[in-house]
Each structure stands twice: as structure tokens, then as C-alpha cells.
Specification:
With 609 residues, the chain is of the alpha/beta class. Among the domains are: 2-350, ABC transporter transmembrane region fold; 456-525, Rossmann fold (3-Layer(aba) Sandwich). The chain is 62% helix and 10% strand. It has 22 helices and ten strands. It has helices at residues 2-7, 15-37, 39-47, 66-85, 87-137, 140-143, 148-190, 192-198, 202-212, 216-239, 241-246, 250-304, 309-350, 410-417, 440-445, 461-465, 474-483, 487-490, 510-524, 540-554, 589-595, 598-605, and strands spanning 371-380, 385-395, 399-404, 425-430, 433-434, 447-450, 528-532, 558-562, 574-579, 582-587. The strands form two sheets. It has a six-stranded mixed β-sheet, sandwiched between helices. A hairpin with a 2-residue loop joins strand 4 (425-430) and strand 5 (433-434). Helix 2 (15-37) runs parallel beside helix 7 and helix 3 (39-47) packs across helix 4 (66-85). The longest helix has 55 residues, at 250-304. The chain is elongated, with a radius of gyration of 37 Å. The chain starts with a helix and ends with a helix. Residues 372-605 form the ABC transporter domain. It is a multi-pass membrane protein. One of its GO terms (cellular component) is plasma membrane. Residues 22-338 form the ABC transmembrane type-1 domain. It is found in: Cell membrane.
Amino acid sequence: MDYFKKIFRFAKPYKRYAYLNIFFNILYALFSALSFVAFIPMITVLFDEEKQAVVKQPTYEGITKLISYLEDYMAFYIKNASDEYGPQYTLSVMIALIIVLFLLKNFCNYWAMYFITFLRNGVLKDLRNEIYHKTVALPISFFSEKRKGDIMSRISSDVLEIQHSFLSILELIVREPLTILFTIITMFAISVNLTLFVFVFIPISGWLISILGKSLKKQSDKAQIEQGYFISILEETLGGLKVIKGFNAEKHFDDKFSKSTTRFFELSNKILNRQSLASPASEFLGIVVIAIILWYGGHMVLVEETLSGAKFLAYIGLAYNILTPAKAISRASYNVKKGNAAAERVIEILEQENPIVSKQGAIEKNTFEKEITIENINFRYEDENVLKEFSLTVPKGKTVALVGQSGSGKSTIANLLTRFYDVQEGSVKIDGIDVKDFSLHSLRGLMGLVTQDSILFNDTIRNNIMLGKPDATEEEVIAALKIANAYEFVKDLPKGIDTNIGDSGNKLSGGQKQRLSIARAVLKNPPIMILDEATSALDTESERLVQQALENMMKNRTSVVIAHRLSTIQKADNIVVMKKGRIVEQGTHDELMDKDGTYKKLVAMQSFE
């Protein structure tokens, strides 16, 4: 229940629907009780000869005798109507009254469900939006420790589970308890002794039902974790299908997925079987209570003669009327236990602390005037430092290239400049201002990013390129494509810049995708450009076109280039050679070649013209 309290804040915008739902649920519960009470005077007058002698109009003697007054008044009305219009007319009127009461009951039930629909779906929408917003806001480091499939499972099936549980808990606290309450009040009005006798057995049946649900939350939690796991396998399979097929690994992944779904199958069976047991168990216990009523109530009617037959028949109907809401409460309590596990997983995401946020009073800056300075940085992802006492200055308008073996810390510099990660020791400054003092939106607005993996989206070329500048004109888009050497193939596509490029841009070649990524950065036109091994995954021809595009883009711009292929950075103003998180050499290409050090060895290892 603790997690549901946190979920309930999402219901506040829809509280008017909750109030209307409660209003119609109250009416539903009231008409549910009255529809059975309406049988009493009819049965009494039509089948009890003694009551047919009652012709005197009853007198109202206060609220304590309201039930008796209504019964006597109805008997008086029926007797007079029968005498005046005949018993068939009276019977028709009473049947019409009962039909109207049942109609009103179901009418109120419909409107209660009608209004709760807006509440349920509104909470579902807002909850999903909030999780998505939080997912996008969380730092990159969070997703290095979490499976993407698990996140997908939380935003889809877990939120849906909460929606069902949300409805259940509203029924649990409003409609069904009110139905039981009004029914019990009516039962007390008919016979206090019989009702007290019956109520000795209700807590016992409730206790027996509660035993069944003790382990449900634990099992549900395991099932939801397992669901996240096999969704992760599916996501990885779709992303790595070429590798799986190329290494004949279909059986390995098929077995992995099958084992996970088998575990989910077994857990789901346990949960649903236990959940299914709730309804028949509560119904059986309810029938046991009805049997006790028949035994004790029959004794009161036939032996003690303290209860009329008509009241006893109505009383049995009322007692049975408790069974339906009791079963619903039983089911709802199971759903709440099951949903609580889902709510716990959703709340974990929503309450996840985000260490990389804009500070209070953060600086908004949209110009770059002097230099980027990296001062005495020590940085680690886990235990061991990736960067060690690292310092570097990147003057405005210059191109600085970072080279070195894999694992030397090159890409970490890009992560720190864009503040995907925060430094633990030292500082990164732009124009003398620590990047932590900028608003995230302002900081990243100063930078364009082209990564090794060309990250494109299942949309048109136009929309992919306009990502950094949504208000760009078609002429600006085409100009950016030309600078990136991409317009030559885009203009030949069936719909030009409005061609959809498929999932992750898979309709295009690697070189084409990378040139579109460059065009996207060109259109954004940031003062600082970060290129993270932008050509390392390309063939020679594509590399030549992409390299030319990069050179076009970097003109009159400050650039930090992380390079794997050293042929692409020979024109850099400063080449920084890194090894195990430290700078071992720096200078121009010619200066470093003359030193005959680490850089020259790296160049010698690569073949280029």
C-alpha cells in the first residue's frame, strides 16, 4: 500500500472523475439494498393472510422506526390498491417498482464505471509520460547497469498492472464496502439477532481467504523481473541479429529465451491459480454462511415465530447480495498485492536520484568566446581511474585531436565535455566557467556530437536532420546535407529528404548514415563540435567522403576529435596522444613525427596514403 500512496498523486488532476465515481457508487450501493427490500411488502401482503387485514394508514414515529413505517405504509398501499383495482394490477405495480430499482442500480453502476475509465486511463497516460520523462533525464551511467528490456517492461506491463490494480483499489474502498454496509444495515433492520449470529462466521471466512494471498506479491515481483529479462533478450536479439546468424548462435539465444519464458510460465501459473482460487473459495464460504442463515433463520420463522417468512426470504436475498461484493473485494485485494509489486518497480524509476541536473540559478550561455579548459581531472567509472591528472586546453577555432590505444580514455573526454558523466576530481570549464554551473540545455546547446555509431531514428531524413534545429527551413536542411556530402545520394531517393530511413536508418549504408549524422550536427551549427571516432567504422570510399564532410564542417569551428584512424587528423592544430588515462605527447602531426615517440609508432601500425 505504501507504493500506491505514491501512485495516487497521479490521480489528482482527475479527482472530479473520482468524486463522480464515488457519488454513483453510493447510489449503486443504496439501490442494491433497496431492490431486495422491495420484495418484503409484496410477499407479505400477497401471501400472508394476517397482513391483508391491515387497512389503517400507519403513522410516522421517527427515524428509529422508519423501516417498520415504510413496510406498513407499503402494505397499506398494496391492500387498498388490491381492493380497488384488483391483485393483478397491484402485482404489476410492485414488479414495475422492483424493475425500476434494479434499472437505477445498473444505471448508477454504468455511470460509476464510465467516470472511473477517465481516471484509470488518465493515470495510465500520466504515469507512462512521467516514466519516459525520467528515463530520458537519467544519466547514461544508470543505463549501463540496467537492462533496456527491464525498463521497457516497467513502462509497459508494470504500468498496465498498476492501472488494473488502481481500479481494484477504488472498488475495494468505495463501491463494494458501501454495498456491504447498506446491505448489513438493512439486515440489522430486519433482524438484529440473526445478523449478529451470521457475523460470527464472516471474520473466520475472511481470515481463510487472506491466507491464500500472503505470498502473491513476492511471486508477482519475480514474474515481473523475469518478464523484463526476456524482453531484454528480445531487444538484444533484434539489435544483434546479424551477429547471431553469422555465428550460428540462433540455438543459444533460442534456449536462453525459452528458459526465461518457461520460468515466467511457471511463476504466472502459480500467481493466476492462487488468484483464481479466491473467487470459488469466497463463494463457497459465502454459501456456508447462507446455509447457517437457513438453519438459524428457519428456526426463528418456524419454531420461535419471531421472524416473518417474507422478511426471512428478503433477508436471504440480502445475505446473498453480500457475496458478490465480497468476492470482488477478495479479487481486488489479490490485484492490489500483485499490483504493489509493479508499483514498487515503477516507483524505483521515478524516485531514482539523478546526480546530473542543472543546479539552482544555472547559467544560460549560448556563445563560446575563448577556450575549453580541462584541469587536473581524475575520473573513474567504477574503481580504477580512467583519467589520471589529465589537463588540456582547447582554444577557440582550433581542432584538437585525441589519439591512443583503446581504453586510453579518449571517449571519456567527450562524455565529460557533454556532461554525460560528472568528474570526481578536477574540473571542465568553458570560457572559465565550470560546466556544472551551466544549465544542461545551455551546455549541450553549445555542442554538436557525431558518434562512431550513427544513431538515427525511424523517421524521415528531414526530421532526423532537424533534431537539433526544429524550425529549420528546407533550404537550410539541403545546405547542411551538401556540406556533409550527403545530398548527392539523398536527392536520388524516392521521396528525397522526406524518405523514411527505417529502424536505426537500416535502409542506408554505414557511410550514408554517418554523413546524415554530420548533416544533423552541421544544421545545429554549434560553436563546439565533438567527433567521437566518426570514421572508424567506414570503408575507404565512405571514409574519404565523410572525412571531406568533416573538414567542411570543422572550418572556423572549435573541434575536439577522437580519432582511431590517424589519417583523418593530420591537419589538426594539436594532436594529443593518450596512454592509460594520461597525456604522453602532444603537438602537430609533423612535430610528433619528428619526436619519434608513441605517435610515430601508432602511425606506423596503420596503413594510409
